[in-house]
Amino acid sequence: MNERATTVEGVRRTNLAEVLRLVHHSGPRSRAVITAETGLNRSTVSDLVGRLVEAGLVEEHEPDPTRRVGRPSPMVAASPGVVAIGVNPEIDAVELGAVALGGAVRERERIPVEQPGVADVVEIVARVVDGWRDGALHGVRIEGVGLAVPGLVRASDGLVRFAPHLDWRDADIAGPLAAALGVDVVVGNDASLGARAERLFGAAREHEDVVYLNGGASGIGGGLILHGRLIGGVGGYAGEWGQTAASVADVADRRVDGGVLEDEVNRARLVQAAGLTAPDDAELRAALTASTDRAAMDETARQRRILAATLGNAVNVLNPAMIVLGGFLAILRDLDPDAFDEDVRRRALAASAEGLAISAAALGADRLLIGAADAAFARLLADPLG
């Protein structure tokens, strides 16, 4: 193949990737809108969409019948027949979701298991995915698997350097899982992938500078997005908010001498205060919202104060446009969002807090699965016909 042909094919692949990413991350749109948003001409967009349809990556639908002005343009949508599997191993369960191109969760399952090891996760995921392949996902193309792990994950190769609550050290889960399923596997930190999901599909999609904190059974992690880019640090370990010193102004609020944030703002303490055993977030939210028990109310108030102080520090250091809270941190805020948001702003410099938005994660319990699946789609999105 001559150099010009190679160049032309390279440009076409780049344009195919741009169109697929657009409908995947931004939703269905007409050919006319794609033309306007990409700057490509109409005939090029028509050719690109046609190739993506042939590859089974997008579908075309009839335009809105209520539109009466001008020639109608077909709507282009990501294909629901292409999925990635998102997986989140936690200390009390393994959660899985089959997430289609476009970000919709087609199937979801939570398997209770205490402190799963690598072999446990591989066995559970292989069993559930095999069941989906024979049933709900029969005939569906599985592009890959993404794991959202609550721990330090090396960006270069996905090795889990340390997941303390799972007791994983230098653990390779990508290799065994890829061998079991026969698809590519990517691994990332759970909170960083949650930040990715909220930036692309959720509460932060209109913002370029975002602080994200995720609270789960294993502790508190986070993600940082600056100028629209997820910041991972040198090794990929950035965002460990739970390991920062807890901002405890009143000694009476401290529960662990010298403890870090996740020692003081802690899901297990909330579960105990609510009188529950092993609830999911929905059950915990319902119990804390309805509770009139003084001990439970005092514990939630204590954790809210410490969390607000931490976020005030984040505002002063990073000056974000938005803070997004996931997991039990969102529950703490939502018990009285106006009071909580005002407390965060009060603890920050007035100029830094101007225009600050604070929100619960819009994707709820699906945020980590969607973020992990989007990471698994990365190779396809970069080169749809590769």
Describe this structure in words.
The chain is an alpha/beta fold and 386 residues long. The chain has 3 domains: 3-78, Winged helix-like DNA-binding domain superfamily/Winged helix DNA-binding domain (Arc Repressor Mutant, subunit A); 82-194 and 367-382, 2-Layer Sandwich (Nucleotidyltransferase, domain 5); 204-362, ATPase, nucleotide binding domain (Nucleotidyltransferase, domain 5, 2-Layer Sandwich). The chain contains 15 helices and 16 strands. The chain has helices at 3-26, 31-38, 42-54, 118-134, 174-181, 190-201, 261-264, 267-274, 281-290, 294-318, 328-334, 337-347, 350-353, 367-376, 378-382, and strands spanning 29-30, 58-61, 75-78, 82-89, 93-100, 105-112, 141-149, 152-153, 160-163, 168-171, 184-189, 210-216, 219-226, 229-230, 322-327, 357-360. The strands form 4 sheets. Strands 6-5-4-7-11 form a 5-stranded mixed β-sheet. A hairpin with a 4-residue loop joins strand 9 (160-163) and strand 10 (168-171). Helix 4 (118-134) runs parallel beside helix 5 and helix 8 runs antiparallel to helix 10 (294-318). It is globular. The two termini are 17 Å apart.
